[in-house]
Amino acid sequence: MKKTMLKSALIALGSALAIVSAPVVAQEAKSLDELLRYVEQGRVKEAQENRAREERFKAARYQQKEMLDEAREMLKSEEKRSAALEGKFEELELILTDKQRQLKERLGTLTELFGHLTSTAGDLRSNYQNSLVSVQFPGREEFVNKLIEKMTGAEQLPSITEIEKMWHALMVEMTESGKVVRFETDVTDASGETTSQKVTRVGTFNIVNSDGMYLKYEPETESLQVLPRQPSGPFIGWAEELANANEGIHAFGVDPTGPTGGTFLSALIDSPTLTERWHQGGVVGYIITGVGVVALIIALWRLIALSLVGSKVNAQLKSGSANDNNPLGRVLKVHEENPNMDSETLELKLSEAVLKELPSLEKSLNLLKIIAAVAPLLGLLGTVTGMIITFQAITIFGAGDPKAMAGGISGALVTTVLGLCVAIPTVLLHTVVSGRSKKIIHILEEQSTGLVAQHTEGKQGA
Q1: What's the pLDDT tens digit per position in 300-358?
Q2: How large is the average pLDDT for residues 178-186?
Q3: Do 243 and 303 lie in a common domain?
Q4: What is the DSSP letter of 272?
Q5: Cα dihedral: 445, 449, 455, 457 (round 10)
Q6: Is residue 83 part of a domain?
Q7: Is-contact 256 205, C-beta < 8 A?
Q8: Where is pLDDT greater, at 272 or 1?
Q9: Which residues form a coiled coil (predicted)?
Q10: What is the pLDDT of residues 275-304, one digit of tens each?
Q11: Residue 22 pLDDT level (bands cut at 50, 70, 90)
Q12: Phi first, then psi: what are they for 22, rounded to 5°?
């Protein structure tokens, strides 16, 4: 029994060893002899595999040694080649230095000439890109580009013919700057439609179409475009007259700052008109304008009325009988109706008659005075309101755009200007109307005083 158990244990242990040492054993040994045979077979196979590995390692070592030898041979070859190339480079560098010295000696004083020629060609190319003459003669900058490319290459020098052609190009540009010419070309309107139109070029300053509209030259697209906003005033009329004229001298608004809508023309275009400035005043500006219109109507009405009354009073002064159609006649009527009244009572009656005429003569004068005082206050109100809005915008968006900030302040000050424009004429009109009224009142007081004195003298003489 013990032998059987021992045998089974040895068989199990042998099977485990066979599995660990020899993975090729696919089945369990049934006896110790079979187990021993399996173990020997595994050892033999492992030995064969180990010898195969050693052979591969030796072959790889020999191969690596061969590759290392080849790399060392290649390194030596490249070092020799590098030394040869360095020598060749030094040799060529000496040749280049010698050639540069020879070129400098042959150029002599022409070096400065070619430098100026290159600079002039660059300036001319820049002028061609923005010149209105290029609209009439497209593609003329091609020669200048080739000449600049040739001179900057430092391989070839410009010929006498090319230098003369360069001089001729400068003379053409200078000559064309003093001409007024008419030709036909494509023009793009504000809607984006391109049509062929007759245009008139005034030197290198401005170009207009037959309708007198100023055009803008776009160098990027080499096209003419109608300015979306034209200058106000007589400029459009002058341009149209020049564009349709055949001879003679004509007025024209020239922008000397450039053909692409230069700074001066842009300033004229961007400057708001009187109507636009008036609209900048907003609601307060409209109120001030309405108040000014009312003041003007009242002043004209009172001037006409007082002029008619003054003419009737002057006629009454020349007449021998009192007439009820004028204040002086009504005052004289009091004396005629009371010839026997004592002087004190007559004086009071005449003063009463004069006082009755004062309201009709001084009608609406106080209203004119109030308008003259209120108009500047309304302007100040609009300015303060506009400044508040401007500073609120600065608080939100910042003060990075001075132009926008200045535009807001300018719009706010429009109401102050409107207020002063209403107040100053109103004060003058009030002065004129008040002077007419006081003149008539003075005549009434003078005549009433004279009547009292005449009546007193008559009583004393009687």
Answers
A1: 999 999 999 888 888 888 887 778 888 888 888 887 777 777 778 878 888 888 888 88
A2: 88
A3: no
A4: P
A5: -160
A6: no
A7: yes
A8: 272
A9: 45-95
A10: 878 888 888 889 999 999 999 999 999 999
A11: very low
A12: -135, 90
**Of 252 and 373, the one with more pLDDT:** 373
- Overall number of domains in the chain: 4
Mean pLDDT, rounded, of the chain: 80
Judgement on whether residues 382 and 331 belong to the same structural domain of the protein:
yes
Which stretches of 221-326 are DSSP H helices? 235-243, 263-270, 274-280, 282-318
Task: Note down the domain range covering 434.
Answer: 280-461
Pairing status of strand 215-218 against strand 194-202 = unpaired
342 and 413 in one domain? yes
User: Cβ–Cβ contacts within 10 Å for residue 113, how many?
Assistant: 13
CA 143 – CA 155 distance, rounded (Å): 18
What's the pLDDT score for residue 17? Answer: 40
Question: What distances in angstroms separate CA 393 from CA 232, 389, 397, 399, 408, one per listed residue?
Answer: 30, 6, 6, 9, 9
β-strand 215-218 against 206-209: which pairing, if any?
unpaired
CA–CA distance from 340 to each of 337, 346, 349 (Å)? 9, 9, 13
Pair 39, 31: CB distance under 8 Å: no
> Based on the domain organization, do 347 and 385 belong to the same domain?
yes
14 and 49 assigned to the same domain:
yes
Q: Note whether 332 and 448 are same-domain residues.
A: yes
Name the DSSP letter for residue 222.
T
Q: Decide: 327 and 441 in contact? Cβ < 8 Å.
A: no
